[in-house]
Write a structure and sequence with these properties.
The structure holds two protein chains of two kinds. Chain A is mainly β. Chain A has no helices and eleven strands. In chain A, strands 2, 4, 5, 6, 9, 10 and 11 form a seven-stranded mixed beta sheet that branches. In chain A, a hairpin with a 2-residue loop joins β5 and β6. By secondary structure, chain B is mainly β. In chain B, the strands form two sheets. In chain B, strands 2, 4, 5, 9, 10 and 11 form a six-stranded mixed beta sheet that branches. The N and C termini of chain B lie far apart (38 Å). The chains are: A mainly beta, B mainly beta. The interface between A and B is medium-sized, with 27 and 26 residues.
Chain lengths: 113, 115
Amino acid sequence: DTEVTQTPKHLVMGMTNKKSLKCEQHMGHRAMYWYKQKAKKPPELMFVYSYEKLSINESVPSRFSPECPNSSLLNLHLHALQPEDSALYLCASSLKYSGSEQFFGPGTRLTVL
Amino acid sequence: QQQVKQSPQSLIVQKGGISIINCAYENTAFDYFPWYQQFPGKGPALLIAIRPDVSEKKEGRFTISFNKSAKQFSLHIMDSQPGDSATYFCAASIGGGSTLGRLYFGRGTQLTVWP
């Protein structure tokens, strides 16, 4: 298995909802990332997990809560989001957190009403 | 402060032509330079990457040229095809230290190849 999968593909939620995004990889990668991408912009790093431990939090608001239950799985829990949080949320993984190639999933298109 | 500067912002090329996208950086600690291709509604796909110990890397129709002294690198797409129409991002990262592994992206180039 040589890909990163993300579910759901699309998500529409209200500002009071709680939802979760899921990311999975079975390549034996030990670093996993969450990015946010707005239209016509490059991906912006949100969080990095290395060996299931949170290594980087790019000052992301607490309404975004990451979780790494095991080395293959990465979740992003969403609560009380704002309309400006609407974006493509991308998960990526790399063999290790040391400049290795990062492989991206297809993303979850999130719309906050 | 943008760590990697990319140009042009958009590029229109005729089918069969050569597409050239340029990137420049300042931080000499960067030691890994990937290019990503992204189609609308999809995640970025790693296209080709280079490390600073080589000046050129070719994979099929895609070539990276790297000029360490000028701190510039570029992507050349030979025999451009309509299926190459996408957004291309250059990036750079450092293999060690506190910023290890972090990808610094350019702003992207929207490539359109006319049939």
